[in-house]
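note to self: the first set is below, dont mix up w the second
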Amino acid sequence: MLHVNIKKAFPHFMLDVAFTAEKGITGILGPSGCGKSLTLQCLAGLETPDEGSIVLNGRPFFDAAQRVNVKSKERKIGYMFQNYALFPHLTVKQNIAFGLKGKPKAEIEEKVAEMLEKVEMQQYGSRYPAELSGGQQQRVALARALITEPDVLLLDEPLSAVDPYMKQALEQQLISFIKEHFTGIALLVTHNIEEADRLCDHLIMYHEGEVIQSGAKEEVLARPVNVTAARMIGYENFLPVTKIERRGNEVVAFVHGAELFIKGAKIPFSPRFVSIHAEDVSFIEEGSLNTFDYEIVQTRARMNHVDVTIKTKYFQLQATVVKKDWDSLLARKKKLYLPPEYLFFLQG
């Protein structure tokens, strides 16, 4: 288990984060400039926090109070940088072997040969980075990060420079290789929620140098804790709550006079909004609970779905309708339906 609790001040920015990460791939998600890459640099020993501690499996890498600051090369951390950061003047073999400096030559050669075989680059050992494709460079960078047999693997937006048409294949190669050859803790920095969803087991969400939510990926995506977190992962519907009532085992939220029944809702301190993802908005023939007459205000056709702006007597919201259902929605009058199990409360 990795325990991180650090602070680092800059003239116009403060990093103040605390989180834990376990085995598997944990995504650090947030917009540019929120401290994601800086956190990785602190973990790797490339930056020194002002306060706090970094502890891996009971071993402190950094502890400001105890004046502990383990050197980078002694932390057993592998680092895959943005754009791979391969040394252009070194061959593939030399790049992979870079972290093994000081080891016996025979040991270095053996480990490099094994790693070249794992990444299926045996025929490219004497080539230079400029002679490789993007996918090959990625494999070399990953091999360099893993050859030291690290306990923690840091991945700093490893797919940010990849052309969109290549991204899916390289993502699959990356995730397959990590799951097959690495059993430790991996931290993946990204600002792309879809990428985080595809690649990660757990998520840590950053905003302006702080952690605003963390947990299992499915839980974080389904139940963001506040509007900031919700916007980061694609929620658009924020219905202002004017009153909340408990009726037996149910919770009812009032939104401009409309009653919304919410199933299994946890009511946070000072809830301000009810939210639902556009993809969870439904349309049904009949029904009474959480159903409303509506009019379509605006539509925008996408490749596989239609984004729809809908207005009711009480509120306006966004819905996503798959294209195969779009014609039937227009042809037959239906009711807008907000399923109680998909509604939840948000703080401001």
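second set (the one i keep forgetting abt)
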Amino acid sequence: MKVTKKINNNVAICLDGNNKELIAFGKGIGFPATPYEITDLSVINMTFYRVDQRFYDLIGDIPENILEVTALIVDQARKCLMSPLNPNILVGLSDHINFAVIRLRKFKKMQMLFSYDIEQLYPKETELNNVHSAHNQELPKCCNNSYSNKSCANIPKP
């Protein structure tokens, strides 16, 4: 895998063996000067294919810890919902979480007008949404008893 552009210390834009572009997550993959070849693929934790290039600059503006927790949320959502997700969800959800964290710091509490309706219409997705704290990167169990799924039973903390 060839790293073509650094996004931050742990996220980079890469080309796989088939010359397909992807976003890769891995400890320290953004440190070396680009371009370079990753020979030990075990350093890669997650990959996201088909992310729209228009979002690359936005990814660079999102804090690293927000990107990392969002990648874990998206990974668990794929497993729990058992359906394909839009490849751009990583960027959109990261931006959303980042904005929510900023808003929380600035305004402390804010009432969500449609939260009850959303919870009733999308119970499984709402359960995935119940992130304890993006700052600490803690994730809850994504599926309760009514949505039991072995891959969702215990989400490891990063």
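remember for set 2: The longest strand covers residues 2-8.
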